[in-house]
Design a protein that fits this description.
By secondary structure, the chain is of the alpha/beta class. It is built from 9 helices and 18 strands. Residues about 380-385 have low confidence and may be disordered.
């Protein structure tokens, strides 16, 4: 059976491009076809997170911070992360870097198309596209988003962002979560907060973020953000860029490895993104390193590692937010205030040690965690509130 390529990568988002970029740079890599529906990439987002380990996109760094703030009504917390800077990665630079290197590699081809399905055969895997064409490969790495209906305790992290310029912007310290904003559009069981990242003097990225189920309309969030900025800056600002999205704060649905390990699921919807945080970029880079190394050795692709203890803690934390919505802001503030910063960063980045996990647990109020843990085991148990 003649193969079109040894590896078929479905989806050219962060995960698909990160893997293809590494395969373009590694000697002895297999032949690859990358299938993506987009014909043109635009600077549609930023990726932020703590740099635990080096990654190949340091040149796409917009800026980084060593101190973050959290705010609630009458309360402000300063969080020091000097050992693990919180960095902002420019998507436009990332896309350009990946695509230029991929296009220069003789063993990687890009195809524009929408995937209709994947069929497993004894000797190969076959990917069908909506235009009727078919591609055969030895392995399939599927990074496509697969939105699903979320059930308790899982939620969507919806956001609408505006990068703005204004002479009134003087703040240089980033705010990770500002719960003190007055949201007129949030339901009692929804959690709204503001994310504020100063990029340069007079230039800041603001995001109105919501944890909710079902997903919220991003246009409503953008309208709320405009009202906030109109009041904060007295209307004296210019919008440089828009971004919005919905991220599933949930574990992956379905098996990450299929067809005897020849077809794997990867990316934000397949375990790279922490269910309780929404951070994905740096975890995707770690996965891409391992997966590309395996493929270059002639081995099957590697899905994201499954960490059951972390998944259990994510479920407990999300259950606590579900059962105690008025206390959600206090839970986050207490966590950042009491937990040692390095341990918390490694936990949030999905790369903790056992001692880090213990420190995180000890930093949280015990009653909400205990009732949430009980509810995770006995779903119909009643909250004492």
């Amino acid at each position: 059976m003649n193969l079109d390529a040894e590896v078929l990568i479905l989806g050219g988002g962060c995960a698909g491009l990160s893997l293809a970029y590494r395969l373009a740079n590694q000697p002895g890599s297999p032949t690859v076809i990358l299938i993506e529906a987009r014909r043109r990439y635009v600077n549609d987002r930023t990726w932020c997170g703590w740099r635990i380990e080096p990654h190949p996109f340091a040149h796409c760094l917009v800026t980084q911070w060593h101190t973050l703030r959290l705010r609630d009504t009458g309360r402000e917390i300063e969080f020091n992360c000097a050992d693990y800077p919180y960095e902002m990665i420019d998507a436009g630079c990332f896309y350009t870097s990946c695509l230029s290197r991929i296009d220069a590699a003789g063993h990687i081809e890009r195809r524009v198309g929408r995937v209709a399905g994947v069929d497993a055969h004894r000797s190969h895997l076959e990917v069908s596209l909506e235009n009727g064409s078919r591609l055969r490969g030895r392995w399939v790495v599927d990074t496509l988003p697969r939105p699903a209906r979320l059930v308790a305790p899982w939620r969507w992290q919806d956001f609408a962002g505006l990068e703005v310029s204004s002479p009134r912007l003087e703040d240089t310290e980033p705010t990770l979560m500002d719960f003190s904003i007055k949201s007129e559009i949030a339901e009692p069981d929804q959690l709204d907060f503001l994310y504020r990242l100063p990029i340069a003097p007079g230039r800041t990225l603001f995001e109105w973020t919501r944890f909710a189920r079902p997903a919220s309309d991003p246009h409503l969030l953008e309208q709320a953000l405009h009202r906030y900025l109109d009041q904060l800056l007295d209307g004296d600002y210019r919008v440089l860029r828009h971004e919005h999205g919905s991220l599933p704060m949930a574990p992956p649905s379905g098996r990450p490895s299929r067809a005897g390990g020849r077809h794997i699921l990867a990316g934000a919807y397949a375990g790279a993104m922490r269910a309780s945080t929404g951070y994905a970029f740096h975890a995707i880079q770690r996965w891409s390193d391992h997966c590309a190394s395996a493929l270059s050795r002639g081995e099957a692709p590697r899905p994201a590692p499954s960490r059951r203890a972390i998944a259990a803690l994510d479920r407990i934390f999300m259950t606590a937010l579900e059962r105690h919505p008025p206390d959600a802001a206090a839970l986050f503030c207490q966590l950042f205030e009491r937990c040692p910063s390095d341990a918390l960063v490694r936990f949030l980045a999905g790369h903790p040690s056992l001692s880090d996990v213990g420190r995180v647990i000890n930093s949280l109020p015990k009653l909400p965690l205990l009732t949430a843990a009980l509810a995770s085991v006995v779903p119909n148990s009643k909250s004492p509130r």
